[in-house]
Structures are given as structure tokens and as C-alpha cells.
Write a structure and sequence with these properties.
Length: about 270
């Protein structure tokens, strides 16, 4: 049996809490040798930790395989240096957006192994998509530990270069908002052709959720499913001719949008 990693979680807020619930649910960590560090940890997380025997804010802890940093980026400079002993010898896995390895190295100079993760909002319900980048010192076994931790809240994929995290941010990190906007626009369009606005809203949102669930369950690519449900000369074909006909309107808009998000991610990361 593969040894489960011992994990220190620094920050048990929205993302940190989601990760911890995922780890406990999937049995991903060695609970006896793991710990949570967060003076303001939500009561739900504290109770879950206590039930499974995970110490919360122990006074003397170290020797972890992975230290997961899930604090707000603007709090990193204040919070992280106080955990220098806990991270000694561990892989530091950061889920802080826009915080580079160079910045992490400055805050935690005794750390030699870094992984940056870019999860997205659906990770909170175990349906996330996460991009991962590791520095050269991280071994294959340590990568596997990290991947298991992030797989507990959805899909995870590795990228080769740190700058690729900005591209992940533009696609999956910000991506949920693109689909939420599409649902909004579809609801507005439904109201514009005569549906009751609330009815249009409910139909649009349920359609988005159902389409995603179908794609996850079907196994075919989005393009394959789209073609399968588009009858020649039918209603869907008429609509797609506007969105994806000769003008390729939606593809052009999406390329511009993702490029803009990637540029901004790079600017924020410094």
C-alpha cells in the first residue's frame, strides 16, 4: 500500500476548507501526522478535523511531506514566515493566485521544493480543474503526492513552465465566469423573444448545469457532442450559424477574452 502523505494545511478558508474536506472524503492524507494551521478556522472544519484526529493549530509540528498554503495572497507576507519550522524539508504547495515561486522563495527561504496550483471555484464542490507547476527539485513521488491531493477536488493537470499557470488561470481559473455569463446572456435572450424572465433564467441555468453533467458522463469531446445534437437544417443549426458560422463569432470572442485574462494574470503575478 502506498504511504499517504502527511500534510500541513495553512489556511482553512473557502479553498483550504474545500481541499481538506476532499482529502478526508477521499482518504488522501495520513490524518495521524497531518495538521491544520488557522487561528480562525471555520467551526465545521475544526469539527471535521477533530472527528478524524487531525490536530488544529498544534504548538509544535513539523516533518510534513507537503505543506499546502491556502491563505489570501495579500496575507502571505504576514502569515508564512511564522511557519518556517513547519515547512522544513517539505514540498510547499501554494494555491494562492498570482503568487510566483520567486515571491514564495523570499517569504520561505528555507524551502527548496515548490509547487504552484491554480484551482478554480468548482473545486469547492469537488468538481474543480487545477493546473500544477513544480520546480526542478520536486521528485516524481512528490508530484504524485501533490496530484493526489488536488485530484480530491477534481481534475488536475501539469504544465511545464511557471508562466503557463497564467494561461491556466485564463482558461479554467477564470473560466467558470465565462459560462455563468453565457447562462446570463441566454436568459436575457430568452426573455427578449418573449419568455417570462424568471422562466428564461431557470431554463438557462439548468441547461448549463445539465450540459456540463452530460459532457462529464458521456466521454466524448465537447465538439463531438455538439455535432451529435445538431441536426442539419434544424433549430440548433440555425443558432450555431450565428455563433459559429463563417464569422466564427464566439471563437473570436473567446480567443480575445482568454488572451486578455492571460495578460492580466501575468501582470498581477509581476
Amino acid at each position: 500500500m502506498t504511504k499517504k502523505p502527511s500534510v500541513a494545511l495553512i489556511g482553512a478558508g473557502a479553498m483550504g476548507g474545500a481541499l481538506f474536506r476532499g482529502w478526508i472524503g477521499a482518504g488522501s492524507i495520513d490524518v495521524k501526522s497531518s495538521a491544520i494551521f488557522d487561528p480562525g478556522a471555520p467551526e465545521e472544519i475544526v469539527q471535521l478535523a477533530q472527528t478524524d484526529g487531525v490536530p488544529v493549530n498544534p504548538s509544535d509540528a513539523g516533518g510534513f511531506d507537503v505543506v499546502v498554503v491556502a491563505v489570501k495572497p495579500q496575507m502571505a507576507a504576514k502569515v508564512l514566515p511564522s511557519y518556517a519550522d513547519a515547512v522544513e524539508g517539505a514540498v510547499l504547495l501554494s494555491v494562492m493566485a498570482g503568487t510566483s515561486v520567486a515571491t514564495l522563495s523570499t517569504l520561505m527561504p528555507n524551502v527548496k521544493k515548490f509547487v504552484r496550483a491554480m484551482p478554480n471555484l468548482p473545486a469547492a464542490i469537488g468538481k474543480g480543474a487545477t493546473g500544477l507547476y513544480a520546480t526542478d527539485g520536486v521528485s516524481d513521488g512528490e508530484r504524485q503526492n501533490v496530484e493526489k491531493l488536488m485530484d480530491a477536488v477534481g481534475l488536475s493537470v501539469w504544465v511545464e513552465h511557471e508562466k503557463d499557470i497564467d494561461l491556466v488561470t485564463a482558461v479554467s481559473g477564470s473560466g467558470p465566469a465565462y459560462f455563468f455569463l453565457l447562462a446570463e446572456a441566454l436568459a436575457d435572450a430568452g426573455a427578449a423573444v418573449g419568455l417570462d424572465p424568471e422562466t428564461a433564467k431557470r431554463l438557462a441555468e439548468a441547461t448549463l448545469a445539465g450540459a456540463g453533467a452530460l459532457m462529464a458522463a458521456d466521454g466524448r469531446s465537447a465538439g463531438e457532442i455538439r455535432k451529435a445534437v445538431t441536426s442539419p437544417g434544424g433549430t440548433t443549426a440555425a443558432a450555431l450559424e450565428i455563433l459559429d458560422g463563417d464569422e466564427k463569432a464566439i471563437r473570436k470572442l473567446m480567443k480575445d477574452a482568454v488572451a486578455a485574462a492571460a495578460r492580466r494574470a501575468g501582470e498581477l503575478a509581476g
